[in-house]
Specification:
The protein has two domains: 20-81, Fe,Mn superoxide dismutase (SOD) domain (Helix Hairpins, Orthogonal Bundle); 94-185, Iron/manganese superoxide dismutase, C-terminal domain (minor pseudopilin epsh fold, 3-Layer(bab) Sandwich). The chain has a three-stranded antiparallel beta sheet with strand order 2-1-3, sandwiched between helices. It contains seven helices and three strands. With 188 residues, the chain is α+β, with helices and mostly antiparallel strands. Helix 2 runs antiparallel to helix 3 (65-81). The longest helix is centred in the N-terminal third of the chain and has 23 residues, at 20-42. It is globular and about 50 Å long. The chain has helices at 20-42, 52-62, 65-81, 94-104, 107-120, 167-170, 174-185; strands at residues 125-132, 135-142, 154-160. Bound molecules: manganese (II) ion. Manganese (II) ion binds at residues 26, 30, 77, 160, 162, 164-165.
Length: 188
């Protein structure tokens, strides 16, 4: 049985960039539903005693779509909660900054490329910074897909660009939500 990850901040803590209402729906309804559904699906199955990452890989390989979608969405949301700061955007460490500059030219250019990629994800999905063989890249994935199932490398941060992540606060303005996250909420 998987349990909801406890947050280390209050649901109001990300205002005005992410409202308590958005956060409460996102965490208490969307994320909780994926988690409850996953627990229900794996009960009594071969997946029951696996770690979450193993479930993602095994269900993806087998084409068990319902298990895969719910398991990946639980992992993705927990990764996203960890990519949020309640104290303003957190700067990357100097070691990480060096890698960002080596991969994207500058931190400003990284933000520009990240925004384009996240904005360009057609429909529901995610945008990630991943590290593979010492090189960073920005990858957008559809629906529940993530760097584990697609073998894209180690995820460093992500943003959820499903409409439920921003619609109450930004309506159709995904670009404004991405700007807010990059400027005020991003935690490396
Ligand atoms: Mn979400």
């Amino acid at each position: 049985m998987f349990e909801m990850k406890k947050l280390n901040f209050d649901t109001k803590a990300l205002e005005p960039y992410m409202s308590a209402q958005t956060f409460e729906f996102h965490y208490g309804k969307h994320y909780k539903t994926y988690l409850d559904k996953l627990n229900e699906l794996i009960l009594g199955s071969d997946y029951e005693h696996m770690e979450l990452e193993e479930i993602i890989k095994a269900s993806y390989a087998k084409g068990d779509k319902a298990v895969y979608n719910n398991a990946a969405q639980v992992w993705n949301h927990e990764f996203f909660w960890n990519s949020l700061s309640d104290r303003g955007a957190v700067e990357p460490s100097s070691e990480l900054l060096n890698k960002i500059v080596a991969s994207f030219g500058s931190y400003d250019n990284f933000k520009k490329e990240f925004k384009q990629k996240a904005l360009g994800q057609f429909g529901s999905g995610w945008c990630w910074v991943v590290e593979k063989d010492g090189k960073l890249s920005i990858v957008a994935t559809s629906n529940a897909d993530n760097p584990i199932s697609l073998d894209l490398g180690k995820a460093l941060v992500c943003i959820d660009v499903w409409e439920h992540a921003y619609y109450l606060d930004y309506q159709n303005r995904r670009a404004d939500f991405i700007d807010s996250w990059l400027a005020h909420l991003l935690k490396w």
